[in-house]
Design a protein that fits this description.
The complex is a heterodimer of chains A (112) and B (110). Chain A is mostly beta strands and 112 residues long. Chain A has no helices and eleven strands. The chains are: A mainly beta (112), B mainly beta (110).
């Protein structure tokens, strides 16, 4: 089944403890993105990647890092999480710039 | 900067009613427009994708239209059912990002 898989689905962590949210797609898509969803603010792009080793900042990149060493994987790294990074995170992928996006099931992160 | 607005923010209808959800965007330079459905606390399910050169797309009881020149799209849902209750999100692909509206939360009562 064609899909975008995120792990974990739920995570509670403490301020400052480094964490990684994994994202993997099995569709050989070139484009991958991370979004966060917050009440009243909607979905906002954190980082995106147009291909292996090509990444760039979205609208809200502060406090996040990404890497794209393989086409299928696009992990989101929080080096020192803070409570304002408590949010619902989505990974998404697309085959071409004008193709639709497929989203993962989301990761609900709580930083205390 | 591209902005996407969805009206209304919430909508309640009785089962069986036909309804229209609205989406507007400020910059017509888009690759495509995508409608998604989101159930509470869940992921986004793609409903329809309209390329910038297209006027409409249909899937079952859903029909989406696009008027790029006026910056508008509508999602028409025919014969609504309680299972249609969810938040509907409109997103335009502009540059390297999907720009989302804040959604319309639909409640269909039986």
């Amino acid at each position: 089944e064609a899909q975008v898989t995120q792990n974990p689905r739920y995570l509670i962590t403490v301020t400052g403890k480094k964490l990684t949210v994994t994202c993997s797609q099995n569709m050989n898509h070139e484009y991958m993105s991370w979004y966060r969803q917050d009440p009243g603010l909607g979905l906002r792009q954190i980082y995106y990647s147009m291909n292996v080793e090509v990444t760039d900042k979205g609208d809200v990149p502060e406090g996040y890092k990404v890497s794209r060493k393989e086409k299928r994987n696009f992990p989101l790294i929080l080096e020192s999480p803070s409570p304002n990074q408590t949010s619902l995170y989505f990974c998404a992928s697309s085959d071409r710039v004008n193709y639709g996006y497929t989203f993962g099931s989301g990761t609900r992160l709580t930083v205390v | 900067k591209q902005e996407v607005t969805q009206i209304p923010a919430a909508l309640s209808v009785p089962e069986g009613e036909n309804l229209v959800l609205n989406c507007s965007f400020t910059d017509s330079a888009i690759y495509n427009l995508q409608w998604f459905r989101q159930d509470p606390g869940k992921g986004l399910t793609s409903l329809l994708l309209i390329q910038s050169s297209q006027r409409e797309q249909t899937s079952g009881r859903l029909n989406a239209s696009l008027d790029k020149s006026s910056g508008r799209s509508t999602l028409y849902i025919a014969a609504s059912q309680p299972g249609d209750s969810a938040t509907y999100l409109c997103a335009v692909k502009a540059g390297t990002a999907l720009i989302f509206g804040k959604g319309t939360t639909l409640s269909v009562s039986s």
